[in-house]
Structure formats: C-alpha cells, structure tokens
Amino acid sequence: MKIICIGRNYSEHAKELGNEIPESPVIFMKPDTAVLKGNDFYIPEFSNDVHYELEVVVKVSKGGKYIQKNSAHKHYDEIGLGIDFTARDLQNELKSKSLPWELAKGFDGSAVVGSFFKKENYDLHNLTFSLLKNKDIVQDGNTKDMIFTFDDIIAFVSQYFTLRVGDLIFTGTPKGVGKVEENDILEAFLDHEKVLDIRIL
C-alpha cells in the first residue's frame, strides 16, 4: 500500500506558506508505516513545530497505469478524511538545502486515516470538510477550491506510479494549518459529520 500525497493543491494554503501556485500536482510519498495506529498522536522528539494538515483522502479500488482523466472516476469508490502531520521546522530546514521532505512528512504516525465512505453519497465537486482544534475551527475547506481535482490527480500520478488497490491519495490541504501542542484535541468533519478524533500527546 502506497500513500501518495499532493502538496499545494489549495491556492490559499500555498500562499500562506509562501509557495508559488503549481502548474502541475506536487507529489510526495509517505511509507505505510506512517499510518497512525489508534487515536493518539505523539509529537516526535526531533521536532518542535509539528503542524496538522486536514485532507480528503481517496482510496484506490481499481489499479492502473496511464489512467486517462475521463476514466479516473472508475478507479476509486470511497473517500474519507486524513491528517498529514508535518514537522514544519524540519521541512523548512530540508527545503532550504534543496533536500527531499520525507523526514518531515513520512515519519511514523504522520498519516492519520479515518473511515472511508461511498463516494456516491457526496458531491465531490462541492464537498465541505473542517478541522476543530480544542473546539475551535482552524481549517474549513471545500473541494471546489482544489487546483487539481481527484480525477486530475489520479491521471497525473498514474503516469509515474502504477496504482494498486488499497493505495491512498491525500489530495491536499486548505489554508489554516498550524502547530499542535500536547493535550490538544483534533476533530475532523466531513460534510458536518464527525469522522476523526485525535488526541495529541
């Protein structure tokens, strides 16, 4: 199982981190060991600035290579929410040296994955999702603001990586990312229904 992540897919988020708006999807990966087990996230000892990034996650249901955009919808049946935890201080250090981000993005427990739901129950082009930190809304997103749609992403990614059943695609985060502290509680909502509940330790 691969975890494929899309960076800078919401223009306002790209701007808040001082990044340019991409002309094609920005791709990075997380290993399968990044998936968080349980509902407790432990801040790693190598970072003092871990950020939450709430994202819609697509689960691949049909593998393929060189998938065309007009058939990309046939390759996933379910969506859910996930959190891409990022060691921002480490990421900034790596970026300043033009080095890959994996240490900041792919560490153990850095990929929160919630339950998955049938996509036909949602309007994928106008899907709301939000994150509360200690009961305050910190991220409030809508898929209509994505630069690259789910189908765009699948078509693009499959040019480079063969997709397999069970692969997960984190499709990008809206603005509002921020630091987590010990004892924070994160709650994620998909179309106003709570689907994730994470405690920071």
Task: Explain the overall architecture.
- The chain has 201 residues and is mostly beta strands.
- The protein has a single domain (3-200), classed as Fumarylacetoacetase-like, C-terminal domain (Fumarylacetoacetate hydrolase, domain 2).
- The protein contains four helices and 14 strands.
- The protein has helices spanning 11-16, 88-96, 102-105, 150-157, and strands at 3-7, 26-30, 40-41, 50-52, 54-60, 76-84, 86-87, 111-118, 128-133, 136-142, 168-170, 178-179, 185-190, 193-200.
- It comes from Chryseobacterium defluvii.
- Keywords: Metal-binding.
- This is 2-keto-4-pentenoate hydratase/2-oxohepta-3-ene-1,7-dioic acid hydratase in catechol pathway.
Radius of gyration: 16 Å
**What ranges have pLDDT less than 50 throughout 5 or more consecutive residues?**
none
- Helix and strand element order: EHEEEEEEHHEEEHEEEE
Structural class: mainly beta
Shape: globular
CATH class: Alpha Beta
Count of DSSP helices? 4
User: What fraction of residues sit in β-strands?
Assistant: 35-45%
Gross CATH architecture: Alpha-Beta Complex
Cα distance, first to last residue?
27 Å
Share of helix, binned: 10-25%
Strand order in the largest sheet: 2-1-11-5-6-8
Fourth-level CATH superfamily:
Fumarylacetoacetase-like, C-terminal domain
What is the oligomeric state here? single chain
Summarize this structure briefly:
Helix content is 13%, strand content 36%. It has helices at residues 11-16, 88-96, 102-105, 150-157; strands at 3-7, 26-30, 40-41, 50-52, 54-60, 76-84, 86-87, 111-118, 128-133, 136-142, 168-170, 178-179, 185-190, 193-200.
